Amino acid sequence: MCCSNDCLENGCCPLDTKALFFGIWTLTHGIFFLVLSIYYFIDPTDCPLYAAIISFMLALVHTVAGILLILGYWKNKGCPFLCGIFMSSIIPYLCLLTIYLPVIQIIFTLTSCMYYRKEMETKAPAK
After folding, report:
1. Domain for residue 80, yes or no?
2. Total domain count for the chain?
3. Which residues does 78 contact at the CB level (< 8 Å), separation at least 6?
4. Range of 85's domain?
5. 3-class secondary-structure state, position 47
6. What is the model's pTM?
7. What pLDDT is attached to residue 11?
8. For each successive 10 residues of the chain (127 residues), what is the average pLDDT?
């Protein structure tokens, strides 16, 4: 019933495409949450101020995570890529009830870590 890593690695498209998609996906969601959190400041009747501030800060972190993922992918740098993976996990796991965000996050975290291990970690210069 379970599929091996080969299923995640070679299914439908290569790992590098999945890693880039994950960066774009995270950046898109970050911008969406940023706009939504700004709306909370404009129409405060639905949301208390502290919740608007927290959602704005989380949206900024998610947007930065998307930028780090894309930057790490384009520059083939492991540190920003790994930081982007870590930072991009905050909002999806806080939105656990939405189901799709945590599930997509888990799948793309696995594929991005495989991409890192295969492409970035193995090609890092030796010290």
Report:
1. yes
2. 1
3. 72, 116, 120, 121, 124
4. 14-121
5. coil
6. 0.83
7. 65
8. 53 84 95 91 79 92 97 93 94 86 91 88 61
* Token pair 């790994």: residue: 82
Cβ–Cβ contacts within 10 Å for residue 38, how many?
13
58 is written with which tokens?
Answer: 């989380």
In a domain, 65, yes or no: yes
Of 24, 32, 14, 39, the residue nearest 104 (C-alpha): 24
For residues 9 and 16, the answer to whether their CB atoms sit within 8 Å is no
Residue 5 within any structural domain of the chain: no
- Report pLDDT for 15: 86
CA distances from 13 to 16, 19, 74, 96 (A): 8, 10, 18, 27
The verdict on residue 42 lying in a domain is yes
The percent of the chain in helix, strand and coil, each rounded to the nearest 5, is: 80, 0, 20
